[in-house]
Design a protein that fits this description.
CATH superfamily of the largest domain: Alpha/Beta hydrolase fold, catalytic domain
Oligomer: single chain
Structural class: alpha/beta
Radius of gyration: 27 Å
Strand order of the largest sheet: 1-2-4-3-5-6-12-13
Distance between the termini: 100 Å
Shape: globular
Strand content: 5-15%
Number of domains: 2
Low-confidence stretches: 1-8
Helix content: 40-55%
Largest sheet: 8 strands, mixed
Mean pLDDT: 90
């Protein structure tokens, strides 16, 4: 009868295992519920802001449209919303099916291990792992995102920057090398980097201490590197009413300062929307004699060629293709564009990747790797999400209108942009007439700025093109690492030049002349 004690022990152990699995499962269910609510709340906050802005704008529009026209427009808007919701639901169901199919297989294996006392995770181990995974995504991950703030982006008070000049609207900082063995060449060819308005400046100084910073990739090569940063728009009236002409004048002022310091003309380097603005400034003629080279990175040169956004806009009823839905009034009476509303537009355009439950299960799958439940969260993942969550900035109306025009009115057959500065036509052909070397960098996997949009100038002028792997922010995050496969100071893939290599080669070429 020796089997009797063994049976009792096994039954007792099985009961303990099942009890532990039950308790872990209850905790996991509670965390999951909290997670669903959290992701829904994060999704709903910009929705509520956008909805309020929509209502304010419609209070005026209903007065100038017939009841029949309004009802027709609202019906078309309903159909559009249903299409967007369908995209979000389909992608959500797919990712949930994929996630739970994997979990069902793992749970069944753990159950068999438990029942037949086999090697491997038992059902309690499985339940513990799921609880740990949920805790990591719902609780630990948000804390890591907040904790990375001291290392992410620009911190102009930490001694790594020198304030060189300012206007009522912008500050100009020199970026010093993080590599203490590097000395900036006083007679080197300087570069001024222009950040995008809507995405903010911090993406360009992603993680300087981790050697992942676009601006420091230049500075650490001894290049005189400057970054133009807009002042806090909510507390700076001059920035609130900033126009395209103001942008060009301030850029000219900064270029004059930098040229006087280094005795050489400047390379203007714009990232994303900053590249579009930089090109407009040069085409206006305001920078003649000050800027002799141009670099753009993932910059939309003709927004109407951005297929994904154009398709989205075409499905949106014409009545609602209005920048006014994003405008808000400040206590001083000035109007600015709400950055949260603009980010909401992107969420709608990409609903198949931005739906709240899709985002939850995407994050769960990202961390659901062997042994990853207890590993620390990488600074890179935390910093990217810090940028996506916290770096959405309000915008001047006039600057946003320039970009809006670019996404709704194509470049002319002669190469002219759909707006003017100082009453002057802005034509890409002027870059060739001024003999300005031009490097266009774009990302192969970019879902924000399509390649045809970034390469639009090639229809009218010659320019050098460099193609980077990955998505929109990769040039500033992945490839700014000097040890990466597409490091910015190197040549790679068919001898393509990164923007830092382009700048270094320009410095040598100009020095020889």
């Amino acid at each position: 009868m020796t089997w009797f004690p063994d049976w009792m022990n096994n039954a007792s152990e099985l009961g303990f295992t099942m009890s532990k699995a039950l308790m872990e499962g209850i905790q996991a269910a509670q965390i999951h519920t909290n997670g669903v609510n959290k992701y829904l709340d994060e999704f709903n906050i910009p929705f509520e802001i956008s909805f309020n802005a929509f209502n304010e704008r419609e209070k005026e529009k209903v007065k100038t449209n017939s009841l029949q026209r309004t009802m027709q427009d609202y019906y078309e808007l309903l159909l559009f919303n249903l299409q967007v919701a369908e995209n979000g639901c389909n992608s959500t169901f797919k990712v949930m099916n994929s996630f739970y199919a994997q979990k069902a297989t793992a749970a069944f294996s753990a159950w068999l291990n438990t029942c037949f006392d086999q090697k491997g995770d038992n059902i309690a181990d499985f339940a513990t792992q799921q609880r740990q995974l949920l805790e990591k995504v719902i609780y630990t991950y948000p804390e890591a995102i907040k904790a990375v703030r001291p290392e992410f982006g620009f911190h102009f008070d930490n001694g790594g920057y020198i304030k060189t000049a300012e206007t009522d609207r912008f500050d100009l900082f020199q970026v010093l090398p993080t590599d203490k063995n590097v000395t900036v060449r006083a007679d080197g060819k300087p570069v001024i980097i222009v950040h995008p308005y809507v995405l903010g400046a911090n993406i360009l100084a992603f993680l300087p201490n981790e050697n992942r910073s676009y601006v420091h990739a230049f500075a650490n090569q001894g290049i005189p590197t400057y970054v133009r940063v807009i002042k806090d728009i909510n507390n700076t009236p001059a920035a609130q009413i900033l126009t395209g002409e103001d942008d060009a004048r301030d850029t000219r002022f900064f270029c004059e300062k930098v040229k006087a310091i280094h005795g050489r003309e400047v390379t203007l380097n714009g990232f994303c929307q900053g590249g579009f603005i930089a090109v407009a400034n040069i085409l206006s003629g305001e920078l003649d004699g000050l800027v002799d080279a141009l670099i753009t990175c993932v910059a939309p040169m003709d927004g109407t060629r951005s297929e994904a956004l154009v398709e989205y806009m075409q499905h949106l009823p014409p009545r609602f293709r209005d920048l006014g839905y994003a405008v808000k009034s400040l206590p001083n009476g000035n109007q600015i564009v709400d950055g949260k509303v603009m980010s909401w537009v992107y969420k709608l355009k990409s609903m198949e990747r931005e739906a709240p439950l899709f985002s939850l299960y995407r994050d769960l799958m990202m961390f659901d790797r062997p042994g990853s439940h207890t590993k620390p969260i990488s600074k890179t993942a935390a910093a990217i999400n810090h940028w996506l969550i916290y770096d959405r900035n309000d915008l001047p109306v006039d600057i946003t209108q320039m970009s809006f025009d670019s996404y709704t009115i194509p470049v002319t057959a002669e190469g002219a942009l759909p707006f003017k500065l100082f009453g002057r036509e802005l034509n890409f052909k002027r870059l060739a007439a001024k003999n300005i070397p031009f490097l266009i960098c774009y990302a192969k996997g970019d879902d924000l700025v399509d390649a045809p949009s970034a390469l639009a100038p090639l229809d009218f002028i010659d320019a050098e093109v460099t193609v980077f792997p990955k998505g929109h922010g990769s040039i500033a995050t992945s490839w700014s690492d000097p040890s990466s496969a597409c490091a910015l100071h190197t040549r790679f893939d068919d001898n393509q030049r990164g923007p830092v290599r382009f700048q270094l080669d320009l410095e040598k070429t100009v020095a020889k002349e």
